Amino acid sequence: MGLWLDESEDLLSERAAQKLGVTVSDLVSVRVVRSVLDARKKGSPRFIYTLEVEVAAGRAPEALPPDVSQAPPLPPPPRPVKEPELRPVIVGTGPAGLFCALGLLERGVRSILIERGREVVERRKDVAKLMRDGTLDPESNMNFGEGGAGAYTDGKLSTRINHPLVRQVIETFARFGAPGRILVEGKPHIGSDLLPGAVANLRAELQARGCEVLFQTRVEDVLARNGRVAGVRLSDGRELPADRVVLAPGNSARELYERFAGDRLVSVEAKPFALGFRAEHPQSLIDTIQYGRAARNPKLPPADYKLAENLDVDGQVHGIYSFCMCPGGIVVPTPTEEGFQCTNGMSNSRRNARFANAGIVVSVSVEDFAREGFHGPLAGLELQRFWERKAYELGGGRFIAPAQSIPDYLAGTLKRKPGETSYRPGLAHADLNRLFPARLTRALKAALRRFDKKMRGFASEAGMLIGIESRTSSPVRVTRGDDLQSVSLPGLYPAGEGCGYAGGIVSSGIDGLRIAEQIAVELGGEPGGRTHGVPGEE
Ligand SMILES: Cc1cc2nc3c(=O)[nH]c(=O)nc-3n(C[C@H](O)[C@H](O)[C@H](O)COP(=O)(O)OP(=O)(O)OC[C@H]3O[C@@H](n4cnc5c(N)ncnc54)[C@H](O)[C@@H]3O)c2cc1C
């Protein structure tokens, strides 16, 4: 049911009763299960609600209107399985690792989680240092540490995938302390200020129920015996025996993927991804473009956008799109290695920063890697590193990001110095045309011009590009079969974004849950319906 901005939510009960042909007093309860802002009609946005209502016994209408259905019954909780002698080892405490551990616990299986970085609260200090003066801790940063790349992210829980477990992931975050509103928001968003708390609570529950978590411990290699996984070797030299290892180290665990490609024990292949820039605009400009005359209405959240174009450049079709849009957010440095520059975006729960940012990226395929001279399973990773190195040099070091206004980038000029920005440790005025192969630059420019037609003012002087956005998803895939195990090393379960099976917090969490379910089934459990469907990329 829709409500205009000047209508109150109190009207919902009345309208629900009308729709069902009953009186308001016949309704035992009315609960908003989803509310979505419909801003397609410029100047007249409205909220669309999905409600769950309970009608008093004997008062339910005989026939339901076409857009009303009976609420489905809750599925029964999964049954425990016999715990194996050796605990499963999980590499990484990002969403894939944490949700896998939680899924295993639901089945009565305790695991050992290994995390190279620091606990989420300590990690905050390392992230702050990087933003203050460009001092990078290669083991504890925006990508590495408890909670993974997910912990200090924006915490947008919207996903393009349509999987029955989406709801479970969102409910789990709410159960561990994320704001309850995420249960009803059409585009649920936790915020970088609240997400670490939920991650810490989730981990505390895992520990309280018998899981072990080793922090500041890096997995250096996967061990094998008789053609099957036999454990992991840790950075302190210890070998941890395991006959099931869930590999969820995220998209920046480069040295692990290099090791796999080098010794060929674990099969890895190159995977397409996308790269480009972060675009930053004043939030007020985006609000005006998206909401028109309603822009200042206090009921409206800071506006977001989603842009995409498929363009033929020199006979090759490129997909160019906005990625991980953060209304009221900041642009952040996300490197994991000294000398390589990359960025991403995040926002706090209130989304009250003065800027809006989004990645503007072009997809790059295995053929693109080859055209640039990169071949083999690590071709994408090498291309990613190559452009991150160039961006670092263009910025002049210490993770100062090269930046250029959008009109200057389009014209190949350097007329206007970067103005105010949210990016720390700072910007260097530079010609971003010096980055990326000419073909990709042409595609990005053509798309920016089209985006400006869809959102008038997007390519105006108020818009700035900040270099570079390169870790949109993993440049490798650790190949696995239908049993979710590595095709070359049984007992190894490649998981989440880094191994090429997810592209965001929710899809990574779902992938972790699916692997937990697969392991439970192998341990003799009944399938709980979680192993169906591949989450895939967002
Ligand atoms: C700044 C930023 C903002 C983002 N915003 C959003 C958003 O709003 N919404 C969204 O859906 N997605 C967002 N993402 C992407 C999202 O964070 C990832 O898709 C998701 O975290 C991937 O989950 P994962 O568990 O597969 O890997 P990760 O979250 O990357 O976790 C991997 C973990 O493994 C650890 N690790 C790595 N190597 C080793 C090793 N050798 N030994 C032991 N541990 C290791 C790492 O320290 C890390 O903790 C954002 C990413 C960033 C960087």
Fill in the keyword field for this structure.
538 residues, alpha+beta, 5-stranded parallel sheet, binds flavin-adenine dinucleotide
Secondary structure elements and their pairing?
Blueprint (H helix, E strand, L loop, with lengths): L1 E3 L6 H10 L6 E12 L7 E10 L33 E3 L3 H12 L5 E3 L5 H14 L32 H10 L19 H14 L3 E3 L4 E7 L2 E7 L4 E3 L3 E3 L6 H10 L4 E3 L2 E10 H9 L16 E6 L2 E11 L3 E4 L9 E4 L8 E10 L1 H6 L7 H17 L5 E5 H6 L15 E3 L8 H17 L9 E6 L6 E3 L13 E3 L10 H18 L16
Parallel strand pairs: 4-5, 4-10, 5-6, 10-22, 18-19
Antiparallel strand pairs: 1-3, 2-3, 7-8, 8-9, 11-21, 12-17, 12-20, 13-14, 14-17, 15-16, 18-20
The protein binds flavin-adenine dinucleotide (FAD).
- The gross shape turns out to be globular
Distance between the termini: 28 Å
Helix content: 25-40%
Number of helical runs? 12
| Spatial order of strands in the largest sheet | 13-14-17-12-20-18-19
Brief sketch in words of this structure:
By secondary structure, the protein is α+β, with helices and mostly antiparallel strands.
Report on this model:
By secondary structure, the chain is α+β, with helices and mostly antiparallel strands. Helix content is 27%, strand content 23%. The chain has twelve helices and 22 strands. It has helices at residues 11-20, 95-106, 120-133, 166-175, 195-208, 254-263, 283-291, 366-371, 379-395, 406-411, 438-454, 505-522; strands at 2-4, 27-38, 46-55, 89-91, 112-114, 212-214, 219-225, 228-234, 239-241, 245-247, 268-270, 273-282, 308-313, 316-326, 330-333, 343-346, 355-364, 401-405, 427-429, 464-469, 476-478, 492-494. It has a seven-stranded mixed β-sheet. Helix 2 (95-106) runs parallel beside helix 12. Bound molecules: flavin-adenine dinucleotide.
